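Tip: read the tokens left to right.
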């Protein structure tokens, strides 16, 4: 696989993820499409471009931060990479099946904690034998004790969050997609959960991390992609991209929208025009 622009050309022998001109559209109807206007008006559909022309190549071993304001398309991009949503246009190639964290496993209230853990592990791709061996470790780590044999309906929200987090972070994927911070229950549990998450990030072959906490992105990712309203604005070293994003955010916060938009234009103008070509042999 080679990436090419008029100035540089590089060859990546074993890319982990290749996204070529990815676009993703959603069709909205009813109140969402009318902007919340009168219920009695005729329903009209409108198309929202969640992603437009997103292109990048990720080498094996890279950790990628994805930043941008709410509604920029960050989570949509993760779902496209994960394969849970198909792009409207363009192509996405992934070296292996990614694991998407950030959406809690579908825990069933009438099942016990142990049963939910077992089914959750199967859903994450574990074999039945692996899942059976891992369930006791999950129960111990989530500190459920005898509650593990009770239905989830008897759990507090904190207990449910701990179990959900423990299940979600029990796999060691080659390509890990993390959408914001996972809920981990009470604050006393936070340090323990953070340590487990750090271990997961270190063990994964590739990480795509969506977060509004820029220090988390800087700590875990060498490279960062900035998306704004579906468009790629920047793709480069994390410190540089985060700095420009912070400048934009500060301008926007201070009401200097015209300057913020001009900064967007300037930064995006430096984004390389990449085309992707397969390398024979």
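Filled-in amino acids:
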């Amino acid at each position: 696989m080679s990436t090419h622009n008029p100035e540089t050309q590089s060859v990546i022998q074993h890319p982990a993820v290749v996204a070529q001109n990815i676009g993703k559209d959603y069709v909205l109807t009813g109140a969402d499409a009318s902007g919340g206007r009168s219920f009695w008006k005729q329903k009209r559909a409108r198309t929202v471009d969640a992603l437009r022309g997103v292109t990048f190549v990720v080498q094996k071993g890279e950790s990628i931060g994805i930043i941008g304001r709410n509604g920029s398309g960050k989570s949509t991009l993760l779902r496209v990479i994960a394969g849970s949503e198909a792009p409207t246009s363009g192509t996405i190639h992934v070296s292996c099946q990614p694991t998407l964290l950030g959406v809690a496993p579908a825990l069933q209230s009438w099942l016990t904690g142990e049963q939910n853990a077992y089914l959750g592990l199967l859903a994450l791709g574990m074999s039945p034998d692996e899942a059976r061996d891992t369930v006791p470790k999950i129960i111990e780590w989530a500190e459920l004790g005898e509650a593990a044999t009770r239905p989830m309906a008897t759990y507090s929200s904190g207990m449910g969050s701990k179990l959900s987090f423990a299940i979600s972070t029990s796999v060691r994927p080659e390509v890990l997609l993390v959408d914001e911070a996972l809920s981990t229950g009470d604050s006393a549990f936070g340090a323990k959960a953070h340590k487990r998450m750090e271990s997961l990030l270190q063990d994964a072959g590739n990480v795509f991390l969506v977060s509004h906490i820029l220090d988390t992105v800087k700590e875990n990712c060498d490279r960062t992609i900035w998306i704004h309203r579906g468009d790629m604005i920047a793709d480069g070293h994390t410190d540089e991209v985060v700095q420009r994003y912070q400048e934009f955010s500060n301008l926007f916060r201070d009401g200097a929208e015209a300057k913020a938009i001009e900064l967007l234009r300037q930064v995006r103008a430096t984004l390389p025009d990449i085309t992707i070509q397969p390398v024979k042999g």
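Residues 104 and 164 are 6 Å apart (CA to CA). Residues 113-204 form one domain.
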